[in-house]
Amino acid sequence: MHTTDIVVVGGGPAGVAAAKAAVANGASVTLIDSAPLLGGQYGRQSIDSAYVGIPGAQHLANTVVWAIEPGKRLHLRSGPLDAPGRAAAVLDAKILILATGAYDRAIPFPGWDLPGVYTAGAAQALAKSQRLAVGKRVLVAGTGPFLLPVAESLVDVGSQVLGVLEANSPTRWLRGAFAGRSKLPELTRYAAMLAKNRIPYRPMRTIIAAHGTERVTSATTAKLDRDWNIVPGSEQRVEVDAVCVGFGFVPQLDLAVAAGCRVRDGFVEVDHAQQTSVTGVFAAGEITGIGGADLAAAEGEIAGTVAAGGQVHSRRSVHKGRTFARALAKAHPVRPGWRTWLTPDTIICRCESVGYGALRRAVEQRQPADLRTLKLVSRVGLGRCQGRMCGRAVAELTGIPEAVRRPIAAPVRLGELAEEDPA
Known about the structure:
Blueprint (H helix, E strand, L loop, with lengths): L1 E8 L3 H12 L4 E4 L24 E4 L2 E7 L3 E6 L8 E12 L3 E3 L12 E3 H11 L6 E6 L4 H10 L3 E7 L3 H10 L4 H13 L4 E3 L1 E8 L3 E8 L12 E4 L2 E5 L2 E3 L2 H5 L4 E2 L2 E2 L12 E3 L9 H15 L8 H16 L15 E3 L4 E2 H11 L4 H8 L12 H8 L15 H5 L5
Parallel strand pairs: 1-2, 1-6, 2-3, 6-19, 8-15, 9-10, 9-15, 10-11
Antiparallel strand pairs: 4-5, 5-6, 7-16, 12-13, 13-14, 17-18, 20-21
Helix pairs in contact: 1-7, 2-3, 4-8, 7-8
């Protein structure tokens, strides 16, 4: 058992900024991150790059917090993910800062479960951290500005990006971009990258199906209307060996909910100092609202400063970042028409291989009133990811709200659960 002043969970822009600010204000800080290197998805480094830590902070790399008990007691497992023999530890935090980030939102479509279909974040992670290309001929599709750095990362490792397909309209894209004028140089750079590599940028178009037997070999794209319904006759088949899709992000709320933090509109509720509804627990970054690395870092700095007893002199960066985030959210919504792309045998829950037809029959025949009952009658969300990949889609398809309260926040082995907690 070990006690420390401030524990920061998450090593992305928010967590790193929080740890630095807390150390600068004289606090004893432990920074926990599941990755081997700091930076998160935004600042992902090559696995052979030199690592420089945060002076004055203890960094627990390759470490997951799999449960939180009342009183800010954290249960940890350290070691390579899903490997046997991970070391156990229990850590009591006087103050806790949660900066657990977000993961790609995927929406199901026929063939999305084929090998060679990646989330945009996974493709970028392989490219940036391991210099691996997911394929030679790759299509990038979805919605949001994140598609652009993903395309750039793929080009950097030698992939031929056949196109960037943005499901929403260019006017919304531009409105979102101009709301954050500091982002215009970045947008200009990506536009130059697309032009240099002759990568077409196709608005109001997306991938509606992937095809193949052992892996993806082609994809069908289609023009969409404003609500993402397919425009008849616009379908085109493209030969590919990989597909990267991303439809925004979903906040990782498991630990925040386990700690008792209030959630509103799908995000952790915080005040002007990044304090949650639970005394001594702060939150920063994407779990408080999807807004990108700059906003996450600004929130993290405030959280770390206040948690360590320091004074915050300006919140301008946060206000500016949240204005930009609101504009992007309006520019890149996920429209309901995606449901019309599905066929009865389209897999919805990949862990349990539950198809759309089977899900509909379970709802129509059993009429489940809540998520627990839905899981029991259909098996959606009962697999390894516990609905993290399919939960949002299932909620939209069935009208049954998605749940985020999971006592176990990360996969652990039964043998690990059976072990006695370390003293």
